[in-house]
Design goal:
Nucleotidyltransferase, domain 5, alpha+beta, eight-stranded mixed β-sheet, 625 residues, 21 strands, seven-stranded mixed β-sheet, GIY-YIG endonuclease
Length: 625
C-alpha cells in the first residue's frame, strides 16, 4: 500500500473506540494499540507535525497497511489490545520478557478433611490460597513444616469421614498425618489443626512459636531428650520461616508495590508482593523495546500485560507515577476479580518508603546485570579487540580455527570452528573428511582442508551465494606453530586471499605460551582475557575434531564387524547402527532385543547373537594360549 492509499484509508477511520493493528509489507504485526477515538489516534502516526520518538519513526517507516477492530467501550478496547499483544508479540510494542507463574499454597477448606497443596494457579473453587511465594522451594518447605507440626494431609484421597481405607499411607507412620482415612481423628479435631495452620499462613507466628517452645521444655523436664530435640528443630524451622517475612504495614491487606529503573539499554520493573501485611516475595521483569518510553508508559504497559496473566490480583497496587489511564485500569482489574481494585501513587509515609525500596532494588538488579554484561563483553568482544590490538590488525570480529584428527593416518578428518565477536557461532562450524591425503600427514591434511574451504567460498561469492563459506574471516587462528601457519599462508596466497594467519605457540607442557604472527613470536599475558579466549578457541577446535573422528571411527568399526555376519547387507546394517548406540550395546543384546530392529527377522537376530558369542569364545581362547 503506497502513501496515497494509506491517506485514503485514514479518511475512512471512525471516531469510535477500538484497537488498531499496524502491518508490514509481509503482513507481520508491527504494533497493536487502543484508542478512544481511532481516527485521531491512527492519523497522528502519519502526521508530519506530530513529534515522534526514533522507535516510532522507524515503525511508521515500515507500515505497509493497517486494520482495526471496533469496540463499544474503551475498557473493551483495553482488554482486546492486551489479548492481541500476547497473541502476536509485536516488535514495536513494549513487551514483558518474562512469562512466569507463581507458586501458592492451596488449602482445600471446602473439604471435610482439608489438604495442603502446591499450586501455580488460583481458581474460584472455595479453597484458600496463600502467596505468591518467591520460589517453589519455599512453598514445599512450608507445606512440609505444617504437615509435621499440625499433621495436615497432603494426599489425594477422597476422605468423607465415613468410608475407611484398607491401610494408612506412609505419612501416618512418619507421624506427619493422623490418618483421617482410617477414622483415627474426628473431623472437628482435624479442622482445629487446620485453623491453626491458617493462622500461621496468615502471618501470625507467635502462638505456634510459643506452643512449640513450651512443648520442648516440657519434654526436656521429663528427660525425653530425643523428642525434645525434634521440637527444637521444629522451633528453628518456624523461627526461620517467620524471620523471612518482613512486616510492611499492619492492616493485613494484600498489596503489590511496583518500582521501575532504566538505563540506555534496559528497563527493569520490580514487584514486591505483600500478603496479609507481610512482604512474602518479589520478582523482577525486563521489558523489551521500552528504553525510549516514559516511566508512565512502561508501568501502564506492565500493568496491562502482567495482571492479565497473573492468578492473583491484590486490592491495592502502588506505583511511583500517576497514570493517565489509571481509572480505566482500575475498572478493568476490578471487573477481573469481581471486587474493588485501587491503583495509587503515595507521596509520603510507609507506602512511599516501600515504593522507594522497590525502586532501589530495581536499580540494584539493573546495575548487577549491567556488571555481568560488562564481564561477558570483556571475555568475548573485549578479548577479540585485545587480540586485534596485540597483532596490530584492523579487527578480529570473525575468527576461524582449524584442526586435524586421525588415528595413525586412519579416518583423517578436519574441523573448522567459527567465533564471531568472541562467541562461538556453531551454525558455521564445518567438518571435512580428507579425500586426497593418505597416512598421518598433518601439513598435507591442513592444506586440503583450507584449500577446500576457501575455494568453496570463492565459488559461492562468484555464484552470488551468501552461505557461511562466502564469509571470510578477519583472522585465522592455527592450532600449531610455524609449519601450520605457513601451510595456511600458502593456501591463501595461491587463491589470492588476504587474511592474516596467527599460530598458537606451545610450551613443553603443550600449553599456549604465545602467538606466532608474521614469523615472530608475540608474548601474551596468561592472565588476560585475550589469553583465555585463545585457549577456549584451541579447546573447542580440538573437541570438535575429536568428536567427529570418534563418530567416524565407531561407524567404521560397526561396518567392519557387521560385514562378517551372514545375512547382513547395507539396509540391515544401517538399521542396526541406527537402533543400537554402539557395537558394545549390540554385542550385549539378546535375540529378542535384536529382532525388534526393523527388517531383522528372528533367524537373522539369532545369527547376529551367535556370531558375537563365537567371537567372544575366540578371544578367550587366544588369551588362554
Amino acid at each position: 500500500m503506497n502513501s496515497e492509499q494509506i491517506q485514503e484509508e485514514l479518511t475512512k477511520l471512525p471516531k469510535s473506540p477500538g484497537v488498531y493493528i499496524m502491518h508490514d509489507s509481509k503482513g507481520g504485526v508491527l504494533y497493536v494499540g487502543k484508542a478512544v477515538n481511532l481516527r485521531n489516534r491512527v492519523r497522528s502516526y502519519f502526521r508530519v507535525s506530530t513529534k515522534k520518538t526514533l522507535k516510532i519513526q522507524k515503525m511508521v517507516s515500515l507500515i505497509d497497511h493497517f486494520d482495526y477492530i471496533l469496540t463499544d467501550t474503551e475498557l473493551e478496547a483495553l482488554v482486546l489490545e492486551n489479548n492481541l499483544i500476547k497473541e502476536y508479540s509485536p516488535k514495536y510494542n513494549t513487551l514483558l520478557k518474562d512469562d512466569k507463574t507463581y507458586p501458592y499454597i492451596k488449602v482445600t477448606v471446602n473439604e471435610p478433611f482439608p489438604r495442603l497443596i502446591f499450586s501455580r494457579s488460583l481458581k474460584k473453587d472455595k479453597s484458600k490460597y496463600f502467596g505468591p511465594y518467591s520460589s517453589a522451594g519455599s512453598v514445599n518447605d512450608m507445606i512440609e513444616f505444617l504437615s509435621k507440626i499440625y499433621h495436615i494431609r497432603t494426599c489425594n484421597r477422597a476422605i468423607d469421614g465415613k468410608t475407611t481405607f484398607d491401610r494408612p499411607c506412609l505419612n501416618y507412620h512418619m507421624k506427619q498425618c493422623d490418618a483421617p482415612c482410617m477414622n483415627k481423628i474426628t473431623e472437628e479435631e482435624y479442622k482445629e489443626n487446620v485453623k491453626k495452620a491458617l493462622v500461621f499462613l496468615g502471618g501470625n507466628y507467635d502462638p505456634l512459636l510459643k506452643e512449640i517452645e513450651e512443648k520442648m521444655y516440657e519434654l526436656s523436664e521429663k528427660l525425653e531428650f530425643e523428642e525434645a530435640a525434634k521440637y527444637r528443630e521444629l522451633l528453628r524451622s518456624a523461627t526461620n520461616i517467620a524471620q523471612k517475612q518482613k512486616i510492611t504495614d499492619f492492616d493485613g491487606e494484600n498489596k503489590d508495590y511496583i518500582g521501575i529503573a532504566g538505563n540506555e539499554k534496559d528497563v527493569l520493573v520490580q514487584v514486591f508482593f505483600v500478603r496479609e501485611g507481610k512482604l512474602i516475595g518479589r520478582e523482577h521483569f525486563y521489558m523489551k523495546g521500552a528504553t525510549e518510553n516514559t516511566d508512565e508508559e512502561n508501568i501502564e504497559s506492565f500493568i496491562k500485560q502482567y495482571y492479565a496473566g497473573t492468578p492473583f490480583i491484590p486490592k491495592e497496587i502502588f506505583i511511583p507515577v500517576q497514570l493517565e489511564e489509571g481509572e480505566l485500569l482500575e475498572k478493568w482489574l476490578s471487573e477481573k476479580i469481581g471486587g474493588k481494585v485501587s491503583i495509587k501513587s503515595p507521596v509520603k509515609g510507609q507506602k512511599e518508603k516501600m515504593l522507594e525500596l522497590a525502586h532501589s532494588n530495581a536499580l540494584m538488579l539493573l546495575k548487577r546485570d549491567e556488571e555481568k554484561h560488562k564481564l561477558e563483553e570483556a571475555r568475548t568482544k573485549g578479548a577479540t579487540e585485545e587480540l586485534a590490538s596485540l597483532l596490530d590488525i584492523v579487527k578480529a570480529d570473525r575468527i576461524e580455527s582449524y584442526d586435524i584428527s586421525n588415528t595413525q593416518g586412519f579416518n583423517s578428518v578436519g574441523s573448522m570452528v567459527v567465533y564471531e565477536n568472541g562467541r562461538p557461532k556453531k551454525s558455521d562450524y564445518r567438518k571435512f573428511r580428507l579425500k586426497t591425503v593418505e597416512g598421518p600427514d598433518d601439513y598435507a591434511s591442513m592444506y586440503e582442508v583450507l584449500n577446500r574451504r576457501f575455494t568453496h567460498g570463492i565459488n559461492e561469492i562468484e555464484g552470488d551465494n551468501t552461505t557461511s563459506f562466502a564469509i571470510f574471516p578477519d583472522l585465522i587462528l592455527m592450532d600449531g606453530g610455524r609449519g601450520q601457519v605457513h601451510v595456511a599462508e600458502k593456501v591463501l596466497s595461491e587463491l589470492g586471499i588476504d587474511v592474516p594467519v596467527c599460530g598458537m605457540v606451545k610450551d613443553d607442557r603443550h600449553r599456549t605460551r604465545g602467538l606466532l604472527f608474521k614469523d615472530r613470536e608475540i608474548p601474551i599475558d596468561t592472565h588476560s582475557e585475550c589469553f583465555k579466549f585463545v585457549t577456549r578457541v584451541q579447546d573447542e577446535v580440538h573437541r570438535f575434531a575429536i568428536e567427529y573422528h570418534r563418530s567416524l571411527r565407531t561407524k567404521a568399526q560397526v561396518h567392519s564387524i557387521l560385514d562378517d555376519i551372514p545375512g547382513i547387507g547395507d539396509k540391515r546394517r544401517r538399521a542396526l547402527m541406527k537402533y543400537f548406540k554402539s557395537i558394545d550395546e549390540l554385542k550385549a543384546a539378546s535375540v529378542e532385543e535384536i529382532s525388534k530392529v526393523e527388517g531383522i527377522p528372528v533367524n537373522v537376530a539369532e545369527e547376529i547373537y551367535n556370531f558375537f558369542r563365537k567371537e567372544k569364545r575366540k578371544e578367550k581362547n587366544t588369551e588362554e594360549k
